[in-house]
């Protein structure tokens, strides 16, 4: 029962074997650290992104539940080691030293990991995950960590945007267009974290205890000699769950056939829950269908819309006066069609020699100031106005004093500053793993609990920050001392002096 | 050792449990077919797409190796059945009938599946996969089939485009930005099928026997006190595999440090394989680096470029005269950034009652002629000119006579016709499963064999059909008789007559 990515046969989640789910260079660098005697050097890495996805005003953190699984299941099996031992170096000989593979055989993680809880609103340049521990271990986690947090944060954010636009239950049903089976499972979970009411993905429902839902397909109608017979049979078999898809042949005729069946159901003491329209001019057809249903007395029959929807088409359909009881959203959500990747990065920010108390900040410089990384061991203070709305976030070094006035400075623009000192705040990073083992509770891993955090987090944002287009940007700055330390380090590394 | 999606601990691939990897409505419809006594009705479904991805001229079929796995592993476990048995219907009561779940417990697939081999060039409106068998079984496979064939065909096609542009080895290293762990594994495999030389994804390398490759990261350089020391240490540890990343602090200084190490390696009888540039103006920096390396006598040191590349940026960099020995392509390939989903569909095309010999064609009509489905049990003839280049494809019904002149008609435009009768042809669909069990050989499941088919298939296309922008469209048409049968069926279903 070992080894799987995202699927499970038994009630218990299996032990996962993620150690090889990494870029080859992480393993060759690991051998490098081993060969350089850097095994006891400690490092601190942070995962953060530089731009909010979908040109939006916020992102919804997600993926750290899978990260906890990855950490708990991290080990190299004999089979993994045999595979690595067989790899050739391009220039001749074997790529890996057998003594290094022996080291990997006995390797057990000892890192500490802190992360913002799933469902937390996150913004550019703030650490979402912090990993501290032996530098080699930090790097061996990098690729898998980025894979799960980037992807799931992206999808949870997309789902939140779609749900903000819909203002009615949204069912995610993107499995057939999702990027692979494993990807689809975590995409379905992230959709729930972001606010969706249900998913069509049965395996995801089972694995993550998510609400599942569905109607029927065009093929059901095509499998009968005529549409009315297909509808009647469906209503007979599923009287408690009857939503009829009306656009297999002709939407108007389909609506009339659904009304016939809806009245027959009513006469039999049942209820037609709804009709679904999956093609055509959805805004016009939804209004037309509502009129026809109401005229027939089926005012309690809902209308479900689907067909390549996203937050923008949903907003447009609602603006045109369609009354929609629920929405089905597939492709555009499950693969985040308009931006299918979040560019989150994982950067070394500090190192510490064995026996040292103090950390040494590390920085990667670049031609563009916006691409500077952040030095130190960091956390985030989230400041809150008296009315409960968020005022701004401060990225600060946990080992340095924080200026008393609570001054934050935009990472790329010293002229943009804010003083938050008199407001109350909370810090964002919470323990995820200690000494290489996850410390998350079942509640902290639950998708539906994370969805509650998402809902509460959206409440704390101003409407202008939640706009789909051109949102007001949420203030995130570096603690004043951190800003200046970083500027000095950058100019030192570039070999010039005195800029700041 | 049961149950996993894409990962495996042992040498043997585990039995996969994919039955729940489906939309809920497939299972409720299955219960419907069971309740309607349609268990013995046979159906024929085809998977096809309507538009070539990336506005390109071709697609590379991929995903049927995973489909074969899904079919072989298809079963409902006791745990799956317990989960389904616990689901509530929205209107009250349980969603599934216990007697139906008993039926699922004993269900073994008996479908026949035919598919084009992986690495085959495919075009709009032609069947890539054909499934025939009991209608319920055909539908229970739909979602998972679409998931794997849509996604992997998309990525293999993207990889082929990138490799056409690169004309040098391409390493896929998109794992950190791929859509989930499971998705990344099949994406890496599909990248190899499409033509990539290697992947950074070690787990994918192990699972699918793919070439793996990698260099080192910026963090390696940052973990030392200075870049030159970091380079020297890397060269000492990996003298047979030394590619140095030169842009951690300053690219020009990085190149000089790499040259220093390259000359030291030469003096020691080793060779600096290459340098990698991962930021900045890649076209300019590659030319600059080539000059500096040549001036230092390191003419055998290659240049590797990476940083958000796709086929268009690669073509532009090459057009500016950069001499690049290999390319690293991540995000834009692994999630097919500019079109992250292929809209392939799976449509019912024929049904047959128990005991019948003949199939009855089925059609879904739509307001748009282009969205008509295809009726019948179909295959594709691929016609070839005397010089080996492809002339065009005919979609035909295997149970109907094919017109002797080999006339094909554009599915959406009767005025576009072609006569191919005098050319030689081959048919595309090949057996993938018989009576519910895969019949693919190990060679037919191999990614590297599929890559050879991709290379051969690209050779058969005209250059104009492989252009990245505005390619010449490849002729695909319906066999003349099929075209007219479909038109008659459509007008009958719409209730009008005599259009054709």
Q: What tags apply to this protein structure?
A:
disordered C terminus; homodimer; globular; 500 residues; pyridine nucleotide biosynthesis (chains A, B); ligase (chains A, B); phosphoprotein (chains A, B); 17 helices; alpha/beta; Nic_PRibTrfase_pncB (chains A, B)
Give a structural overview.
2 copies of one chain form a homodimer. By secondary structure, chain A is of the alpha/beta class. Among the domains of chain A are: 68 residues, no CATH class; 110 residues, TIM Barrel (Alpha-Beta Barrel), CATH 3.20.20.70. Chain A is 37% helix and 18% strand. Chain A is built from 17 helices and 21 strands. In chain A, strands 13-12-1-5-3-19-20 form a 7-stranded antiparallel sheet, with helices on one face. Chain A has a 6-stranded parallel sheet with strand order 7-6-11-10-9-8. In chain A, a hairpin with a 2-residue loop joins strand 19 and strand 20. In chain A, helix 5 crosses helix 6 and helix 9 runs parallel beside helix 10. Chain A is globular and about 80 Å long. Chain A starts with 23 loop residues before the first helix and ends in a 7-residue tail after the last helix. The N terminus and C terminus of chain A are likely disordered.
